[in-house]
Amino acid sequence: MPHNNDWRLTNQMSYLYGKKLVYLPYISYRAGWEHEHCEFCSEKIDVNSSNSYCTPDKYYWVCSTCFKDFNQMFKWVITMPEDEYDNNFISIDDFVDCINRGAEVEFLYENKNYSITHAGKKIAVAEYYNGESEKRYKNPIDALQYPIGEKCLGGILGDIKIIFRSL
Ligand SMILES: [Zn+2]
After folding, report:
1. How many whole angstroms separate alpha carbon 63 and alpha carbon 35?
2. Helices (H) and strands (E) in the chain, counts
3. What is the pLDDT of residues 96-136, one digit of tens each?
4. Hey, how many other C-beta atoms are within 10 angstroms of the C-beta on 115?
5. Are 38 and 70 in contact (CB under 8 A)?
């Protein structure tokens, strides 16, 4: 984790703390705009860059290196453009099959990010930035009991937004 005196830090806290970011290839913010610069390291981000992070309005951009370095400090919420939610689980069976095949999943629900990962033979479900929220289950069916607010994962499976799934 970088120090507060990291050279890349200026006043980003005032406009990027806790913001939603989307992860995608460079897209022009408006006609005639060909590139952006990372808000932290100023690296050029354009159509030749690998995927980067930006605010949903595509105004502020963060390169993937700086994202990794400052994610913890800035507590970003990763989301996706509304028209790209095509990864959702279509059924409980789809979820179980996906997890049983070893998939890692990240999802968004009510502005919080969660991850589903494999920890040894168990399935770990946790909210980002909240180590105490982690629970481990012996199979995907049990993992559907993971509590989220007043509900459980199984009850909101159709409403979560899958940000990433490895399978
Ligand atoms: Zn950067």
Report:
1. 12
2. 5, 13
3. 999 999 999 999 898 889 999 999 999 999 998 888 999 99
4. 16
5. no
Q: How far is the CA of 84 from the centre of ligand 1 (A)?
A: 25
Ranges of each domain in the chain: 13-82, 85-165
Please tell me whether the overall predicted TM-score, pTM, comes out greater than 0.70 for this model: no
Q: Cα of 100 to ligand 1 centre, how many Å? A: 36
If 0-12 CB within 10 Å is exposed, 13-18 middle and 19+ buried, where does residue 66 land?
buried
Amino acid at site 12: Q
**Ion ligand 1 residue ranges (Cβ < 5 Å):** 38, 40-41, 43, 63, 66
Query: Tokens at residue 92, please?
Result: 């409980």
